[in-house]
Amino acid sequence: MKALSVFHRRWFLLVLAGLAFVGFLDATYLTAVHYMGEVPVCSVVKGCEVVTTSAYSMVPMPWGTVPISLLGAGYFITLALLLFAVWDSGKRILLKGALWLAAAGFAIALFLFYLQFFVLEAVCQYCLVADTLSIVIFALLAGMVQSRRTLGR
Amino acid sequence: MDDQNLDAIQELTKKERRELKRQQKKEERAREQRKSSTMRFFAWALILVLIGGSIWAVLQFVANSGTDVSNVTPQEVTADDWITGNANSSVTLLEYGDFECPACASYHPVLQTLKSEYGDRVAFAYRHFPLSIHPRADETARAAEAAGNQGTFWEMHDMLFERQSAWSKGGNIDDILAGYAEELGLNEDQFRADYNSDEVKGRVEADERAGRAAGVPGTPTFFLNGQAIDSPGNAEEFRNLLNAALNEGA
Q1: Which range, of A85-99, B28-42, B70-84, averages the lowest pLDDT?
Q2: Taking the CB of the first residue and of the last residue of chain B, which one, N or C, has fewer CB atoms within 10 A?
Q3: For residues A21 and A83, is the Cβ–Cβ distance under 8 A?
């Protein structure tokens, strides 16, 4: 019998939900800065304003244009709650939903990495943290789903 | 008959015992279910409280994280500064700016409005504070100084802020800036020479050094009558500050 890895442990879902929660805090911070930072400043120590004021930072939605960080916050909190629900209920359908959501986040994170490094040529630490979390969560979740499948559970 | 009786009693107790066991199991299951649903309820409640609390904390953090200028050393406007408006006025508004800073560019129209309204009563000054995070901040600061050598500092200053989105994107910055100089009707050879001169580089560096020594936290940082102020959010807040300063002097 194959040894059980962390991928088979139920508590690992809570770790993933925790990572998504960190992503949520990060994106919430960026969103709050966008809406509350009424006085824009280019700080000596931070270099986010190039990225967060670029044309790519705003996304047109049916109800109006919103900062991408708001969508990020929504994505992360949905993912965190979904993962928590999987931990709580053990329902496969929820796990599948979380995997698809994380896959979408993964694809968008790759695109945002590309934008920052190759188009804007400016990086924002807060954005990098969020993008990295999306990628890590998807990789771990995919690993988890895969190892459950091989166990036939 | 005794045997029969004994059997009956045993039968009864067996049945009773089984019944009792079943009852006990049922109760236990119910209790466990109650316990787990209470646990689930608390787990979800805890999560929701955690989410609400952290949103609140982040909002508080952002609300309190405005740039602090209380420790910035006062900076008086001197004759060496670039001044527009009424250079002789006792009321001075000095800006430490960076041409590549989006925040400075967004303040530019506000300052243009103020210059047109208070140009006869207030001295508006500008100093360079090119931030290292902006790759073209130093070049553009030198371009403004070089244009200043031919008497068009403020024209170049305005042009750089108004066209920030164009020149900050890419292309050969030296040629772009020379093109702007040409547009302003400057002698291009002279402009290029000044732009690369040690004198111009030194002036930009001197401004930056003064800003660092004063503890300027970022751009734009405004000094009203030498005193660093929290950047006003709009033209109206600026007007209130300027009016108060003008009344004080009167």
Answers
A1: B28-42
A2: N
A3: no
Report chain B residues whose CB lies below 8 A from the CB of A40.
Answer: 102-103, 106-107
Interchain contact A76–B (C-beta under 8 A): no
Q: What are the pLDDT digits (tens) for B163-198?
A: 998 998 889 999 999 999 999 999 999 999 999 999
Chain B's closest residue to A43, CA to CA, is: B218
Lowest-pLDDT range, A37-46, A68-77, A98-107?
A37-46
CA atoms within 13 A on the CB side of B23: 6
In what helix (H) or strand (E) does residue B223 lie, and over which residues does it extend? strand B221-224
Q: Taking the CA of residue A127 as centre, how many other CA atoms within 13 Å lie in the half-sphere pointing to its CB?
A: 30
Rounded to the nearest angstrom, the minimum Cα separation between A121 and chain B is: 10
pLDDT tens digit sequence for A63-82: 878 888 899 999 999 999 99
- Taking CA B82 as the corner, what is the angle to CA B78 and CA B88, rounded to the nearest 5 degrees? 55
Residue A30 distance to chain B (closest CA, Å): 9
Integer Cα distance of B93 and B76 in angstroms: 10
